[in-house]
Fold each of these.
Amino acid sequence: MHPSSSPWLTMPKMSFPLTIRSLGIFPNASKPKSGLSSIMPDSRGLIELVNKLQKLFQVKWTWNTKNRVAQIVVVGSQSSGKSSVLDGLVGFSILPRGSGTVTKCPIIVQLITTDAGKEEEGIELQDFLEDGRSQDYDEVRAKIAALMERNGGAIVDAIIVRVYSPNVVTLTVVDLPGIKRIVSYGEPSDLDERIVSLSRKYINEKNAIILAVSPANYEICNSEGLLLAKEADPEGNRTIGVLTKLDLMDEGTDARGLLTGMSKDVQVKLGMIGVVNRSQKDIENNFTEKSFLSNNYGDLIGQNGVPFLRKRLNELLVQHIYKCLPELMEKLEDMLKQCNKQLAEIPNVMTETDKFLIQVLHRFENEIKKEIQGSPRTPEYHHLYGGIVIKDIFEKHFAKDMEAAEKTSDGSMTPCVCNNFYISTYGILLLDGTEANYFAVFRKLAQNQIHHIEGPALKCAERVYDEIMKIADRNLAEENDHAFKYFPELRQLFKRVINRILDGNLDEVKKQIIEYIRVQSSVVFSMDYKFLQEIADLRRKLEKELYVGDGENSSDNENEPGMVKLYFRWIKSHVQDYIPKLVADKLIIPFTNDAGFGVALKVSVMKDYKTLIQLPKTLWNVVKEI
């Protein structure tokens, strides 16, 4: 099948550029600050709108916004009855129970009212959408517990739970881990600090309604939930209090002052609502919240209890959403601009797969060629780069290493050379077979010195290898080519092909260098005219010294080149000329020649194109969500 016709590349249908109207969230949207009532006239639809945005913002993509949508955030101590309040709002238990810290991350609970008999009831988890809605609450609790253990139980990522039922009020609440001051055995020592930090992160948002849960049988001034709420909302303008465990208060005491707002200890402008969380024993004894409130707070029964709490939270959330909606729409417009910008960066591989791949290949090849040839990626690039560095390796580093090799080897053999100056030099002048022993000495000295060249030659090849790797890595960076940002598999394939070519060629270069040096050291021979002329000059000089005197003074002059040094310098000049050519042929030319690594890349890419150009799951989910 031709790549461009593959059915798996079908994109969700969208109109570009994206707008609030095109998203279908606000069907009648025109301007962010006008006509809000006509955009979303009913409270249920308004909260479901916020749920959509909340779901969208949960996707880990490019929208790192500190501004959350309007939501109710539940805070309180671990023993305040916070989870029981949430279960009361839902109508049944959905959260795992146990000892220690059970709620280990934010849980966003979206309650969605359904029409009885018209829509499937059940619970849906964001991370298990493929499983559909479930009515097995034990299974749901098990899945939530498993999700909370991800990342080693770190309290970071939120879990979204959607409850569809005709028996719930459309509402969205965020349940946070309970605040605790004493860490249990086996828990991180800083868990208390992390929970408080997470709570602050959520309640400090001005779009958040704070639901501070406090036990009525505990000193209200020490309520962890209220203390934290007051820190984030000093005036209490967006804080509502919930008193739990009314039935457990000491005999002769009540919470009437708190529930009526007459108490000076706590000032929350959205009110204080009392609830009674039933235990299993209460259920068995037919003890109800309504009966308790009727017997103890009969005049306040209409403003307390879980049913009233549901209704009140729904009203507050709707009012808060309307209040925040203009700003929310402005932020949504800004985020859509970012979205359009990033969607424009996503390569159009959906209908032109082969064309896209060829473009990426050519772009990558050209950028590497340019750098190797000495052109920087940008005019602002002020560092040594690419071809300039390689030229520097050949002309400076390699030459310097070769000079060091000559000095090192000279130093190790200086006594021998000086003491046997006439033997090693005069002997080489008598290559007529009668002075074979002298020639053997010369050959041994020459071979020892030539072996010192191998290290600098190998190091030169390795330096060029490293620089080409750096060039490739720079061009594979996400910020330099968006194709590698959105298609990491493609980037990894390019990297593998380059590594394979360079590693194989470097091994071949090293083998040839070692063999070349071996040949140069094993056979002492030359037909080079310049070298032979220098040898002849040296011979005449030595013969003259021998004729005039014993040559003792000249034999100690290390500045005058002897036979070994002349031969070494001649070999060194050939090596310095040959090694850069060899390295360039094996490591550089394949990346500048049209028939080089580009062919290998094309073969590898077109072989596995289906795997290479699949959008990452998170990005694909965002595109589908939009």
Note: The longest helix spans residues 306-345.
Amino acid sequence: MKTVALVFILSVIGLSEQLRDPRCFPPTNIYRAPDCVPDITSENPNFDCQGGHFVRTAGISMPCTADHDCMENMEPNEWCNSERNGFQWAASGCHCDLKLKTCIMQRFDRNYNEIQWAFCTPRNRFRCEVSDHCSPPKN
């Protein structure tokens, strides 16, 4: 009986992993890269190669092996007004993160003195919006 319950629980967890929107969560596979920040964030998929933390947006996880794989992409739609809202763009634009092996965009939050990252948006899907796809609607 315990085995049946365990199999059921594991299948529910597996199904929920498949159903969750990948735009709203960081990737689960991470890679060791010698140029990445070697600290406690190096094993955590919520942090990118440089220690920036993940911010949920409507950006899309796009696998990459080098920066040129990401050059045609844009910032997440929700970030299009970042400079007016107290953020500063990272110099690299949309690039391939060595640890996450996905196209990301980084910005610096001047209010909290921290780096943030999110998945990039394909150029053909870029629209400057103010909505946050991954957060519940505000009433």
Note: The chain has one domain: 24-125.
Amino acid sequence: EISMSDSGLDQGPFVVSAGPWRIFLLGPLLVLAGLVFLSLALVMVCVDVANPLGRLAFWGAALGFAALAIYFLLLAAALAMRVEVAPDALRLRIPRWQSVLPWFPWIRADIPYADIAAVETRDEVYSSFGLTSVQTAYSIATKAGRRIVLGFTSPLATWNYPFDEAAARIARNATVTVADRGAVKVGGIIRSIIRGTPPWSTASIGANARATARRRAALAMQIAFAMVVAAVALRACLPHGP
């Protein structure tokens, strides 16, 4: 149990990190996925195709597989992240988020709570291939004008990192409130990785549009789950060879 002092600061650290279960179970899967996509990229490069258009198609596929390999390997590296809400300062070891991509250089900083001007959260709405996804971002703004994105949660997931609790504790220690900035439209995931997400000063799309986006994201997840179940069922029903 974390107690409170007379000054209102938490007496014990609150840590957001991957933990041993995520590291030892999820980490190898992410690395394996990265290596599989990297192998596919190499296969596409090595295929000998005489037709120039066919060759171009294989090179395009190789680039796509290479991008997926990099993404999964970066996700594996991101398991080393750590956000520590200590009694005296906020201690960070986190990737520099470029949309959903954990990028370099990493942020390593000890930030006194007196230097924190704001703690904010917002929904970021992505639309790719006709499907909607929503993630909730958490960030801090320092009095020097620096914006640091701490991380994300999903309104539809139950395995989220507790960034909401971390944000609440940071705000309490900095004697500010967690400001809800509403929701913003980000667009496609690939485009957002290249160009970044909208500034945190961007106006919200409104409460009704935010609720609609969350409903569409829930529907997209249900459709994806149904497609996986259908594929497994179809595979089970197909005749097997001797």
Note: Strands lie at 14-17, 82-85, 89-98, 101-112, 116-128, 131-142, 147-153, 178-187.
